[in-house]
Structure formats: C-alpha cells, structure tokens
C-alpha cells in the first residue's frame, strides 16, 4: 500500500465532495421544473376525464400520479444540499474526522515507535518517514522533532492545499 497515493486519493475525493456540495443549483431551472410539473399535474385530470368514463377511476389514477410526482419533488428538494445540517444530510465533517482517526490508528499500529503523548521521549518521526510522506527533507523543517500527530496533520494540510490549487 502506497500511503501517499492513498492519502492523495482521499484528499481529492474529499475536495470533490466539498465542491459538489457548495455548487449552487440554478434557481431558474429549479423554479421552472416545479412550475412545469405543477401545471402538468393540474391539467392531467382534464385530459384523463375525456378518455376515462368512470370518474372515480380517473380520480384514483390522478391521485397516484400526483402522489408520485409530489414525492419526486420532495426527494429532489431533500437531496439538493447533501451536506447541510438537516437530519437526512451527509455528515461530511464526521466522516472526515473518523477517517483521520482511522489513518492515525493504522499508522500508529504500524509504527509502534511513534508516540505523540511524549515528545521528549525521542519517539518522533524519522527522516525516512517524513521523506516518504512529503518528499521533503526533515532537516529543512523548522521543528526537527515532530510528533506523529503533528506530522500527519502537516501532511494532510499540505496535501489538501495542493489539491485545492
């Protein structure tokens, strides 16, 4: 598993999701779709009344068609902003935090000598690990002793900045 490749794909997917969720849906298109649907639904009984003899059957058919289209409109309204704060929305921040904790847990279990609780113990990020994650030499970093949590945060921050450019 190439860690940097997986991290890059995660950051790209995250930024694609944020771009999709922040892109506004054109209001005139939305308004016209609702208007055309409503006009069609309210003129449908007149068109069906001329072809269906029984009024109750016609009313029943119109009810189910209207119920279906009203449901489709309600669903489209609900999924228009998928990452908002409504009860049915996708909790992007929650999944981002869970993923970051999962990455941290995987890395800390893989490299047991990395310990972010005690920075003075010498259990810090090695030069090789930093070079693998960032492509930069750790000697050029202002703080030559990085804890595991700081290193992962810096790498995620750096990659997210690169992904947004």
From TrEMBL:
Subcellular location(s) of the protein: Cell membrane
A molecular function GO annotation: chloride channel activity
Membrane topology type: Multi-pass membrane protein
InterPro entries: YneE/VCCN1/2-like
PANTHER family: UPF0187 PROTEIN YNEE (PTHR33281), VOLTAGE-DEPENDENT ANION CHANNEL-FORMING PROTEIN YNEE (PTHR33281:SF19)
One Gene Ontology cellular component: plasma membrane
UniProt superkingdom: Eukaryota
Name this polypeptide is given: Uncharacterized protein
Lineage: Eukaryota, Sar, Stramenopiles, Ochrophyta, Bacillariophyta
UniProt keyword NAD present: no
Keywords, alphabetical: Cell membrane, Ion transport, Membrane, Transmembrane, Transmembrane helix, Transport
Transmembrane segments: 29-49, 56-75
Main localization category: membrane
Pfam families xrefs: Bestrophin_2
């Amino acid at each position: 598993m190439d860690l940097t490749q997986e991290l890059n794909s995660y950051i790209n997917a995250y930024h694609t999701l944020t771009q999709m969720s922040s892109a506004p849906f054109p209001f005139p298109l939305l308004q016209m779709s609702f208007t055309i649907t409503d006009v069609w639904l309210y003129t449908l009984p007149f068109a069906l009344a001329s072809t269906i003899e029984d009024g109750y059957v016609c009313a029943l058919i119109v009810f189910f068609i209207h119920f279906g289209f009203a449901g489709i409109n309600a669903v489209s309204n609900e999924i228009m902003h998928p990452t908002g704060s409504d009860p049915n929305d996708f909790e992007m921040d929650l999944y981002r935090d869970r993923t970051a904790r999962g990455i941290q847990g995987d890395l800390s279990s893989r490299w047991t000598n990395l310990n972010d609780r005690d920075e003075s113990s010498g259990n810090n990020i090695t030069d090789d690990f930093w070079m693998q994650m960032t492509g930069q030499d750790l000697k050029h970093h202002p703080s030559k002793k990085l804890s595991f949590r700081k290193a992962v945060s810096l790498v995620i921050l750096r990659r997210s900045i690169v992904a947004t450019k």
